[in-house]
From TrEMBL:
Protein's recorded name: ArfGAP with dual PH domains 2
Molecular-function GO term, any one: zinc ion binding
Keyword Mitochondrion: no
Lineage: Eukaryota, Metazoa, Chordata, Craniata, Vertebrata
Keyword set, alphabetical order: GTPase activation, Metal-binding, Zinc, Zinc-finger
InterPro entries according to UniProt: Arf-GAP_dual-PH_domain (IPR052589), ARFGAP/RecO (IPR037278), ArfGAP_dom (IPR001164), ArfGAP_dom_sf (IPR038508), PH-like_dom_sf (IPR011993), PH1_ADAP (IPR037849), PH_domain (IPR001849)
Domain called Arf-GAP: residue spans: 8-128
Organism listed in the record: Cyprinus carpio carpio
Length: 357
């Protein structure tokens, strides 16, 4: 009994470490479950998917289940960071990594892709959603009667279009949609299917929607990521001087707040919003953080030219200020935080923010 309590205490301490305090798969905080075969800590929702992969993952509660010394040692020797470095080593920049509130099919296929199909462990792994042409059948909601009918869809990088066809393909596509204005998001409740995908595009300044699904979860997530892949390919062609991060979205005007106590740079859609759109952790220089003024290339959609680049261990952030004075003030304020050493609580804050992105 004493040994059981000792092992439970060790597991709880491991789960509180900065590298383990968020779910290895979706980033939810305070995971209470663990895969004793993969050596990772996960949340309740993600543990359900792991239970469906008995040949790959064995799930146990870190509070309620019995853990012998060997399994505890295995968890100590591995952990979420080690698993990420192996199973997520070659995740494509466009591939969507689910967050805690995302729908089940996204989370399930992300977990299966990592641990069951090992899609990201090898650099040159063949991934269908990266093909120049991706095609297949999807169930599409009819415009008039609302019924879902099978239609052939073709996504092509050669002309950067998405086409879909009715029964007689010889008559040509029913619609040809430019990738330029194409987007996709999962809407299972709106569509009435667990794999429901909403495809949005513009026609003559009017927004149009296609509601589709596929009975196979892997296939619909492949379509979702294929759309993201061709969007990135288009942006690389249309804006060749922009970096990968700049190509994902054009610049958008946001309201920023710098929280020096918690080392956080928060941004909001407007200054009246109560909830931030995102947050960037600002660590010290010896951890790989830096800030500098710049005039970056590829600043499409933005007339402001006073740039600020924030470097973190994971990525580079580019922000634009309207005036040089604002640029100098932001750089000085960020440098002040970067010059300060990390406090113990800062490590948890950093880990939580990284998993949210």
């Amino acid at each position: 009994m004493a040994n059981r309590e000792k092992n439970k205490k060790t597991l709880l301490e491991l789960a509180k470490l900065s590298q383990n305090c968020c779910c290895a798969d979706c980033g939810a905080t305070d995971p209470d479950w663990a895969s004793c075969t993969l050596g990772i800590f996960v949340c309740l929702n993600c543990s359900g998917t792991h239970r469906n992969l008995p040949s790959v993952s064995r799930i146990k509660s870190i509070r309620l289940d019995f853990w012998d010394d060997e399994l505890v040692q295995f968890m100590k020797s591995n952990g979420n960071r080690a698993a990420k470095n192996f199973y997520e080593k070659f995740v494509p920049v466009f591939y969507y990594q689910p967050q805690p509130d995302d729908c089940e099919v996204l989370r399930e296929q992300w977990i299966r892709a990592k641990y069951e199909r090992m899609e990201f462990a090898e650099k040159n792994r063949d991934r269908p959603y990266t093909a120049d042409v991706y095609e297949g059948m999807l169930w599409k909601k009819g415009k008039d009667n609302g019924q879902f009918l099978e239609r052939k869809f073709v996504l092509s990088v050669h002309d950067f279009t998405l086409k879909y066809y009715k029964e007689d393909e010889s008559k040509g596509p029913k619609a040809t949609i430019s990738v330029k204005d194409l987007n996709a998001t999962f809407q299972p409740e709106k569509i009435g299917h667990a794999h429901g995908l909403q495809i949005t595009y513009c026609v003559e300044n009017h927004t149009r929607n296609l509601f589709v699904y596929h009975k196979n979860g892997q296939e619909i997530v492949n379509w979702f990521n294929a759309i993201r892949a061709i969007r990135l390919a288009y942006l690389k062609t249309a804006f060749p001087t922009a970096s990968n991060e700049e190509q994902r979205e054009p610049f958008k005007k946001r309201w920023f707040i710098l929280d020096s106590l918690d080392r956080k740079l928060l941004y909001f859609k407007t200054q009246l919003d109560a909830i931030e759109l995102g947050v960037v952790f600002i660590g010290p220089e010896n951890h790989g953080y830096s800030v500098r003024e710049c005039v970056p290339k590829g600043t499409r959609g933005n007339k402001w030219k006073c740039g600020v680049i924030v470097e973190t261990p994971d990525r580079q952030f580019v922000f634009m200020c309207e005036q040089e004075r604002d640029q100098r003030e932001w750089v000085e304020a960020l440098k002040t935080i970067i010059s300060k050493p990390m406090m113990p609580q800062d490590y948890t804050t950093e880990a939580n923010i990284r998993r949210r992105r």
